[in-house]
Amino acid sequence: MYGMNQLDVMSQARMGDMLRDAERIHQVSEVLKERRAARRALFAKNLARFLRRAAALPSPATIGDAATAR
Asked: What local confidence, expressed as pLDDT, does residue 56 receive?
């Protein structure tokens, strides 16, 4: 470190900052990917539950039958 001039020290410090920033961005990206996967899995689960329940319900009367039932 004693043989480095001020420009070299500043360049090395900037490189360290850039590497830390890149690592932070990578970590945030991984977390966002995990959250996205969890949201998609939850949506798929809820959709499957909805479709199961919708299939179990009796079919609604047709429009013509509902009009004559009054």
From this structure: 85
CA dihedral (48, 53, 57, 61) positive or negative? negative
Q: Which two tokens stand for residue 65?
A: 């039958």
User: Would you say the pTM of this structure is higher than 0.85?
Assistant: no
Contacts of 9 (CB under 8 A, 6+ apart): 1
**Residue 3 CB neighbour total at 10 angstroms:** 5
The half-sphere exposure of 6 on its side-chain side, counting CA atoms within 13 A, is 0
Token pair listed for 62: 């047709």
| Phi, psi (deg, nearest 5) at residue 58 | -65, 150
